[in-house]
Amino acid sequence: MIFSWFWTRALVPQRSVTLSEFRRACAKTSRKPALNGDHVSDRSRTGICGCLSQASARTWVPRVPRIWGPGIARTPGAPSLRRLCFCGKGGIARASISLTLVLTTLAIRAQHFDGARAYEYAREFAAIGPRWPTGPGHVKAEEFLRAHFQRNRDQFEEDTFTADTPIGPVQLSNFIVRFPGRKPGAIVLGTHYETNYPLRNINFVGANDGASTTGLLLAIADRLRAESSQSRDKKLEGYSVRLIFFDGEEAIQQWSRSDSTYGSRHLAAKWGRDGTLNQIKAFLLADMIGDKDLDIQRETNSTPWLIDLVAQAAKKFGYQRYFFQQSMDVEDDHLPFVERGVPSIDIIDHDYGPNNSYHHTAQDTMDKISAHSLTIDGDVFMESIRLIDQR
Fold it and tell me: What's the pTM?
């Protein structure tokens, strides 16, 4: 497990309550907790209490290294685990147990997704430019994803196929990354990464529509990679997680059931034939949710219990106002999985700009999306994974 302890602005007003809870938890051990700002000097960096004038009455706490993994946000100046000690006579075992339990609970509660990292990935990806199939930017996008996951030595698969489109046969590629888990079964997260072919001549970079959610999944991969690296068997505690970067979601000519969602239709059919679909516990699709004015709709084709679960995940962080205030029917990459009985949800914000005026225009640029929205998205996706693991 990766521990992170930081104080966000939202938590500052609760600081006195949190410290009171901490002290009460430690009271049973008759130890006085010492935190930064109480009596710990710089010497505590060595793992020894800084109150040397009463050294004989102090209890030494072994140095605990700070562990901050990629994809976990940390506020600068936040106290680290190694800067806490207990004062008192003997009994380090009971004090250490109390410390561990309290810190674990508070760290998990305060841990947030690194939306800034997701935003930076999105910025790099959008900088490739238009990524329409058969175009040079599409090749660069494939190279970007391929190089990223090969560099990180992830379990990476390239699913290349030929789609029958209105302009003839077109070679497309889905990218699949696997993070093994201890439980049998898999949770699948997906997005599309290409841009709209009919808009190829207007410099449509799809900052929100394709790049933002690609950045989100890249940052989620960092988080999953960090979590699995902490275990002895290099596996996640729950189900395996698969990330899919779909190609060909956009229409080549005009949106229809046959001219759209090429990558998801291909992969759902392929996994249906080889039995992979039977292993999927849930499929969560991310689409256009980097918008600064985040307003994720309740997509009515989605599986009801998954909608409720995502709403529960959002409620944990106080994000209810960003989720499911409106309902709409959307045709998207989740439908080929829904139609084959896979529990699926489309997490989508289909209200982009005034009267949706930025959608599928050259105005879909990085200044319209935010790290804050991506932090909200990442928090909810990671909490949804945790809740699905518990089912």
Answer: 0.75
